[in-house]
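note to self: the first set is below, dont mix up w the second
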Amino acid sequence: MEILAKLLSSLRNAVLMGFGIVVLFLILYGGYDGEFDHAFGTFFMRWLHVLSGVMWIGLLWYFNFVQIPNMPDIPDAQKPAISKVIAPAALWWFRWGAMATILTGLLLAWMSGYLLDTLLLGFYWGVEKHLVLGLGMWFGIIMFLNVWLIIWPSQRIALGIVNAEASAKPLAARRAMVFSRINTVLSIPMLFAMVAAQNIY
């Protein structure tokens, strides 16, 4: 137990162990014949898309369900630990998780041959699955733009990462919170659309 605890005290080791188990799955799974063909490529890209999405939406929900509601209860002397250490680190993973989710999602749609149809919401070819998936994609794209163009720039001001007037910080924090809540709202139908497209249509 002590060896395992020592090994897992490193996040890098824990992540590498997780990926090692995936490799073991690939070796042992009878349905995988060892060929890195198109079918495997789309499967692998879908897995990366979901993995990235868990990071992104998990942190979005952490901010909205844990950090923001509990900040008023944290004593003022302890708040710098959040604003100077926890929040900047979480925002790094948050914004790059968003980037990875969008890129892998667009690549997956391209590899699957329905990128254009989903972006056009299925209007051209009239495939209902592509309409539902396209709605999910557009919610995700809007959320991604909110992260990079509004939430992150506002948080940089609110957290003092960039120089700004003291009066600008509360306004920037409120703007970041409002658009983070918009993303929380959109995340629910976005996830529904993504799952529905794979399982209903």
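second set (the one i keep forgetting abt)
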Amino acid sequence: MSSLELRGVAKDYSVDGVPVPVLRGIDLTVEEGEIVAILGASGCGKSTLLRLIAGLDREHVGSVRAEGREITGPDTDRGLVFQDHRLFPWLTAEENVDLALDSLGLDAATRRELVRRHLDLVGLSDFARAYPRQLSGGMAQRTAIARALVTEPRIILMDEPFGALDSFLRMRLQEELLRIWERRDVSIVIVTHDIEEALFLADRVVVLDSRPGRIVETVSVDVPRPRDRNGTGLVELKRHLLSILGSRH
């Protein structure tokens, strides 16, 4: 069974009472354990599409299903990571991660162990009691990733998760994400406008056109891991993606 299946998805927003098309005719399948990057320029509907998959927006046409079930709202089977970490400043790293477990009805010992294990997974065991103001940008984002993973979801949804970081830190966290993905049996859908990020991380890159957002091409990244960012395979695919995006503007 596929992790995600979208069929005939369309979405409008209303501006001054006038419907504005945002997404049209989205058909997309994400297989178990697959990483899919949604690539496109600003305003093409990438984040809106992710919100539909997350269950944060239910006003749409078409079917959005996770593991065979129609998505009707947020669920712990789908973890969500935003561009900004959205940690509560008055809570420590471990308390921010623990907060995600509130709806699961777990006993205190189980919660402590899950939090400990997932902070260790993102390399933050020594900063469990640090507050967000005491964490670097990369550490705060890793805490947000731990929070998304602690409910042990089957699908991770990421909306420009490294976009606010400098290029060196962004590359480090991309590698960290792949390390976590290799250790955990999860599917990942990542929204990005960064072609190099999409190619380094994903098994497939889905290119969205703008106004309204439509899938114009899906590109398979048949390059073995670990990938060389400057290797011939990725460079050729980057050139191809640039030509696709360039032709749409």
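remember for set 2: The CA atoms of residues 195 and 239 lie 10 Å apart.
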